[in-house]
């Protein structure tokens, strides 16, 4: 069941779908892989309690309508096996996909920082709660506190409220000045201004952050520091996330250079690796509008339609402005580095506490001594946190890039190289 | 409307519901037990954190990325 | 301590061998300086398997003595060392291998190593995950497992041991030069840095032997003993080309550690897909259910192999003051206590607890040039 694509796109969120649709017109054989059950990425995640915007629905229909686009959902990349060939896996089997060109649209994940009680059932990411609700998680009449940083907090709150939850508080760590400053710029992007008005919530507090999640077997309440004062709220769910970090692991494994924490790309969305492009949140957080235009540029560039790609540059610039405003407004206050106590778990997979990590010089030394990062998440959660807490660079990715069935790994050719 | 068995209990869910969402409908809402015996529940909701690892029909899978299918046997305490 | 000496003994390499030697010396009251370049060698990568191997009498003597010392120390090891006495079950796939199992059984019994022959039927009930049709096995009860990096850390956390992150660029008998130019003097220097030993002593016959490993997610209770195929013995010492052998170790966490592979002639640390696939196929031939389990991490390591499969333990015959503890191949963790005791006895001119002769560096480097 091995496959071949002229153009392989990793990720079927806004960037990936946009790239596929742009590239499709030139007749290329396109395969789009995505590890979620349905296309749309996170922002357009579908499910029994999701409300998809029309644009998302239309793009999915168009994706499906193109006979030269094949979409594989529930599929993860496991290894690179030779130049331009990937080992992938879904629920049933593993197989190889060869390609000529590739576009990475691997998106971003939430920055989840450790704080006392964060491992209690009932605590999720902010985007995490939104995703779970969209997938059918019942929250009717549940008391929810949302915390962390970024516009995602408001979006998550909106989804929770829409599904019957009582959002008691939205604790944004950015200062009122930073958030107001950002809001004042919104008229530059009228659609965003409108969106922010509809998302406004009277329980939103700036200069506020979580101190601890409280409870025995599961979450029972939250302690917050709100503009200097300690506040405790009884609640059923705490949804806490501190912004987004790009998923660059596969890109790095393919040899793509980074720019800061994101994949580096040029004006054509080309990475440092020939014939490999990247678009969307994995090149830097900026929202769905930016992801859509970057995806289209990458799609056109990958099939050689430079004129169409270049035509989109002004639109990209406009949305890059939004991204810049967003990132500076919601930058993280350094005092968030001291949320974790000595016994707060940092590595959830291996139950490694903060105290076991604090003395080490780097990620590798800490990992070896404590087994932090050796678990199933392969350092995605704890590594993201430790990069923020101690500036530790994570190690280079190794296959398997996701937990994979051993029978999938056995699909790799076992012939020794010549 | 798929019917599944979660830790030995029968459960009926809406079409398209994730196994992670289904966990909240029966049992303790948790997906696994940690190294030190603490119960854990889905955290990131999008296939990253691995907290929602469950055993489905004998295979270890992520509950948040798996849609409920009729007849699935899900275990959170293997 | 004499004037100008940074320590009584300098140990190069903070892996399990260096750590064991340092601990043994420090317990004798010597001041030890352990220098490590932070390169993470075999100790960081290996399986931490404690096993008795009887390919030849010297190997048996060293591994048997060392296992005994591990069992004695076990109550002192902290929980993080994850020591378990879970035994090794050598698997015979056919009558020929079962005959090998039987002769090993007789030999080991005669040497006082507790072991049992396991018949075909008993095998299935002991380890239900094993495939049908295996002939039987040999269970070596005193074998075990531990987490080597934590164990090395524990050994180094002994009074009179100082550790320093430093790279040694030259060794001259009982003194070393660091890569910042500084010379450090001691009464003796112990070289215990595995495959990097050649950089300091090019005359050492150490070859790197690359190995791949994979660890699975947690599946408690599937496997009890460390499962190793008897073909392992043949593949380990007879093959010149790349080879694999089934080696499945149950970790206390419930994860399964899968090995083993051997390749010469490369220092490339990349996981090679073809070798990983080959190794996993071999393992699933013994445990078919493994195919359905999830692998979560794969990595490689380099064993320091010597031409006869035995380590070099003793003073360098051409460089007085320089002592060698290298070339342990896949038995470094196992034989760390024996290596340390042998070396310390030689340093103090005492009768060693087992015959030192078979491990002396002279066998490769020639007779001593000094008295």
Question: Could you describe the 3D structure shown?
Answer:
- Chain A has three domains: 189 residues, FAD/NAD(P)-binding domain (3-Layer(bba) Sandwich); 131 residues, FAD/NAD(P)-binding domain (3-Layer(bba) Sandwich), CATH 3.50.50.60; 51 residues.
- The longest helix of chain A is centred in the last third of the chain and has 17 residues.
- With 418 residues, chain A is an alpha/beta fold.
- Chain B has one domain: Ubiquitin-like (UB roll).
- Helix content of chain C is 30%, strand content 28%.
- Chain C is built from eleven helices and 19 strands.
- In chain C, the strands form four sheets. Chain C has an eight-stranded mixed beta sheet. In chain C, strands 8-2-1-12-19-18 form a six-stranded mixed beta sheet, with helices on one face. Chain C has a three-stranded antiparallel beta sheet with strand order 9-10-11, with no helix packed on it.
- Chains in contact: A-B, A-C, B-C.
- Chains A and B meet through β8 and α3 of A and α1, β4 and β6 of B.
Feature tags:
heterotrimer, B: mainly beta, Ubiquitin-like (UB roll), two-stranded antiparallel ribbon, 1 helix, C: 371 residues, alpha/beta, FAD/NAD(P)-binding domain, D-Amino Acid Oxidase, Chain A, domain 2, 2 domains, six-stranded mixed beta sheet, 19 strands, globular
Distance between the termini of chain B: 26 Å
Hey, roughly how much beta strand do the residues of chain C contain?
25-35%
Largest sheet of chain C: 8 strands, mixed
Average pLDDT reading of chain C? 95
Named CATH topology of chain B: Ubiquitin-like (UB roll)
